[in-house]
Amino acid sequence: MVEILQSGGEVALVPSGKSMLPLLRDRQDKIILVQAPEKLKKYDIPLYRRHNGQFVLHRIVAVKENGYVLCGDHQWEPEYGVRHDQVIAVVKAFYRGKKYIDCSNKAYRLYCLIWTRLFWVRKIFFRFQGLARRVRKSIS
Asked: Domain of life here (predicted)?
């Protein structure tokens, strides 16, 4: 994969996990990865490798001097200090079902802006959702 990206190619993958919901659905949508530019910017979605070896696909919510701040769309706790050398590739586009969406699309960029600005609402919503799930289990 790295060789394909370094030669200017693209790699298509089906992501697994729920951290990028509602944008990317677990094992349903497809992402198109390209080699990351020398400097990533806010709202980019890099594929990076954590120190424990885990591969992660999250959105950049801030760019700092000591690295990137990333967070999944379905999460509320950001991850700080991700260095550029940990980045393997960046999402260029994705297929939501059969619909192709380029990451430079204006509607997509508006989604990024709104979704990251509603960070505090997500935190409240997801906590309430977890509480509701626990209450339902205790009633059952």
From this structure: Bacteria
Mean pLDDT of 64-82: 93
Please tell me the distance from the alpha carbon of residue 56 to that of residue 46, in angstroms, as a whole number: 8
Sign of the Cα pseudo-torsion (72, 69, 31, 118, in order) = positive
Query: Residue 39 pLDDT more than 90?
Result: yes
Which DSSP letter does residue 5 get?
H
Looking at per-residue confidence, does 32 or 77 come out higher?
A: 32
Under CATH, which number does the domain 2-139 receive? 2.10.109.10
Alpha-carbon gap, residue 71 to 83, rounded angstroms: 14
Calpha distance 66→60 (Å, rounded): 14
CA dihedral 75, 81, 82, 85 (to 10 degrees): 180
- Condensed to tens digits (0 to 9), the pLDDT of residues 93-135 reads 999 999 999 999 999 999 999 988 887 787 787 778 778 888 8
Query: So where are the chain's domains?
Result: 2-139
Q: What is the pTM of this model?
A: 0.86
Whether the Cβ atoms of residue 43 and residue 60 lie closer than 8 Å to each other: yes
